[in-house]
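queue> pop job 88
queue> type: inverse folding (structure -> sequence)
queue> payload:
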């Protein structure tokens, strides 16, 4: 299942106690992303621009505001400035907005880290495998890495060189023990 842990759990009609326990370990936070070309959401000094630019929170605001400099991250020609801001504390110039999107990102607390460590206990149980960014550090690359691990576990040959190992499957009896 290439979905968030909570979405995967909702799709399993006969989840085991262990599957429910592990998959419910993960929480997700909604984030609003705005794709735009407004440099005013970047640091004032261009020399300070990085791939990721944190904007300090304002009093009373709990959400993180982060602007990605897409030109640097994706090698896009600087003649066409492109930024993605998560949870903007103020809106970019509407004339420079290309799109607004909603995402849920994993939150990593102690319970989630324990869930990641216990995930191999349910991989393959009932012929179900779980993949997603939440199985790693929350990045898209982690989602791909977990999907490659599932594919390799199922004996699929990856058509490029990879150092991703298959999941170490526990014997079926061990997978069911909480």
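queue> result:
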């Amino acid at each position: 299942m290439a979905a968030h842990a909570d979405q995967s759990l909702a799709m399993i009609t006969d989840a085991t106690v262990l599957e429910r326990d592990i998959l419910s370990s993960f929480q997700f936070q909604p984030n609003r992303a705005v794709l735009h070309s407004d440099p005013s959401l970047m640091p004032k000094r261009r020399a300070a621009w990085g791939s990721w630019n944190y904007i300090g929170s304002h009093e009373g605001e709990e959400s993180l505001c982060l602007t990605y400099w897409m030109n640097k991250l994706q090698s896009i020609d600087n003649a066409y400035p492109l930024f993605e801001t998560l949870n903007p504390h103020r809106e970019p110039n509407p004339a420079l907005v290309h799109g607004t999107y909603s995402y849920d990102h994993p939150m990593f607390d102690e319970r989630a880290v324990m869930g990641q460590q216990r995930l191999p206990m349910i991989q393959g149980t009932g012929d179900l495998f779980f993949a997603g960014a939440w199985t790693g550090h929350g990045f898209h690359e982690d989602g791909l890495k977990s999907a490659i691990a599932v594919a390799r576990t199922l004996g699929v040959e990856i058509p490029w060189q990879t150092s991703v190992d298959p999941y170490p499957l526990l014997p079926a009896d061990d997978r069911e023990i909480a």
